Amino acid sequence: xxxxxxxxxxxxxxxxxxxxxxxxxLVDKSGRFVDIFSALNVRRAAQxxxxxxxxxxxxxxVLECKDVLRPAVPAWLKQAHVxxxxxxxxxxxxxxxxxxxxxxxxxxxxxxHTWTRARLALGLTTAQMRExxxxxxxxxxxxxxxxxxxxxxxxFTQLVADLRAAP
Length: 167
What we know:
Largest sheet: 7 strands, mixed
Order of helices and strands: HEEEHEEHHEEH
């Protein structure tokens, strides 16, 4: 790959995909899918141009993966929301790499609306959701469109498993 930034982003997307597949028990010890045809397998999406569908699909989430030094979370969340819509998924989140840390420590950012919808789907109170998945809020000024909640990849993967198991 000629573009080093693209190579870095692709490596992060692949690391997120591989981590989630392993943590969710979707691959065997050699890293092969247990069921190659399962819709629940976490996959990197093909680039779609103007109708981009996000970087990684982990039903019911589209993940927009970012491996950059300076975060721009509110803008990224808007992008994730649009791309989730293009892909036909109900939730879009951002996964931001933490320098010199394991994939499990990557930061997963939820917009307030997405977080609330996931919380309601799980039947949890605000306090239960924050405690169970270790969410921390970020409030930026008076504009709630710039607010978001953050957890790590380990707890996010558990949230995905819990949402998949919910009735």
